[in-house]
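Standup notes, protein team

Yesterday: finished cleaning the Fusobacterium polymorphum ATCC 10953 set.
Today: ATP-binding protein structure.
Blockers: none.

Input for ATP-binding protein:
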Amino acid sequence: MIKLPVNELKTADVTPKNFLIWGESMSGKTYLAKQFESPLIINTDGNATKITTPSVFIKNFTEFKEVIDELEKGKHTYKTLIIDLIDDIETMLVNHICEMAKVESLADIGFGKGFNKFNSVWKNLMMGLTQMNMNIVFISHIVEKTENNGQTTYQTPALSQKCLNACMGRCDIVIKTQKIGNNYIRLCTSKREAYKEEDIKDKKVLEILKTIKNVFSK
């Protein structure tokens, strides 16, 4: 039953808990994500055995949902969920919907129902994940896109535009990783608040954010 809050001002907690980390391979995406407290990795690329962090390797969307359902029961000690890679979850969802409808592509489901189904499930997925009582870290590869007949080129996370918009709309901070020579660079490319160090109540999150450029307002 919904209970209305007391009609008085409360102390706000702006500590970020939902993150999107994107960048090239070997640029430190997963390494950064593993710094969050008590992480569990949902791994899609088969590298789960190469790391010591607790992880689950999944091959399809059904297995992904099974892991999420278990986490939502709350019978665990994990504080952070890392989805590595969220790009693959998008592909798995497309494949799942097509398999259920016994078609080869979403376009084969008449009257746009395939795309509508996908968009609805994806938005609900983003909403459900980011409402969990955990830090959520999405990891994405990087791609280059062009506009204006090839005259403008820019880098972006590898999700499709609609999926990216839904994901970023639920994230507090978006971080781009880059390796230049022997140096690893972490750059905040988008943030929900003008964060200040004194506003971050989680000491572990604060420690991580201090390693990322442009997070804190001066």
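Follow-up from PR in the comments: The chain has a mean pLDDT of 95.
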